[in-house]
Amino acid sequence: MIPAISDITTARLNLRPLRLEDAQAVSTLAGNWNVARHTLRVPHPYTRKMAQEWIRQTWQSRESGKGLVLAMEHRVQAVLLGVIGLEMTRPGQADLGYWVGEPWWGQGYATEAVEAMLAIGFDRLGLQEIGAEHLAANPASGRVMQKAGMHHEASLIRPDRDGRQVPVERYRFRALEKG
């Protein structure tokens, strides 16, 4: 089991566990095609019921030790901006994933959340390595990873939500690289 993580605060964000009442915001923000098309897994269309089920799955994933998913909430406005998570891949290793709603793009929220999640992964969960991938067609996500200190590792091909093979870029950060 992954330890309970209470709200993590950054300069502008609260990273907190998802709640069922977040389902409408998750559905609206992630269900926007401009957001979903930049991800490998977010379904489109994305209904509120699908979001509720996914939120429940994130709770089960944390309880089973398979992952940690947190809401990115604006500290002042108290609105959901996006979601960020770690999926355990092997002992001491996890993959990072995130999305930010379109109204919040280009304001540095993703970088702020990624930096905080890397700290959680290394400092609280004791991970040794965190990887992440982004669609090659979404270079902005790669810039987020680079700003957070992640290093490009490989160019790969992965199946997307519809089973199509698409190019992705893989990044990595190791605990020993922390300064």
Report on this structure.
The protein has 179 residues and is α+β, with helices and mostly antiparallel strands. It has one domain (8-133): Aminopeptidase (3-Layer(aba) Sandwich). It has helices at 23-30, 33-36, 48-63, 109-124, 139-147, and strands at 8-9, 13-17, 67-74, 80-90, 93-100, 129-135, 151-159, 165-174. The protein has an 8-stranded mixed β-sheet, sandwiched between helices. Helix 1 (23-30) crosses helix 3 (48-63). The chain is globular. The two termini are 28 Å apart.
Which architecture per CATH?
3-Layer(aba) Sandwich
The CATH topology, please? Answer: Aminopeptidase
CATH superfamily: Gcn5-related N-acetyltransferase (GNAT)
Number of strands: 8
Low-confidence stretches: none
Helix content: 25-40%
By DSSP (H or I, 4+ residues per run), the number of helices equals: 5
| Cross-sheet strand order for the largest sheet | 1-2-3-4-5-6-8-7
What are the defining features of this structure?
179 residues; alpha+beta; Aminopeptidase; 8-stranded mixed beta sheet; 5 helices; 8 strands; 34% strand; globular
Task: Map the helices and strands.
Blueprint lengths: L7 E2 L3 E5 L5 H8 L2 H4 L11 H16 L3 E8 L5 E11 L2 E8 L8 H16 L4 E7 L3 H9 L3 E9 L5 E10 L5
Parallel strand pairs: 5-6
Antiparallel strand pairs: 1-2, 2-3, 3-4, 4-5, 6-8, 7-8
Helix pairs in contact: 1-3
Summarize the structure.
The chain is 30% helix and 34% strand. The chain is α+β, with helices and mostly antiparallel strands.
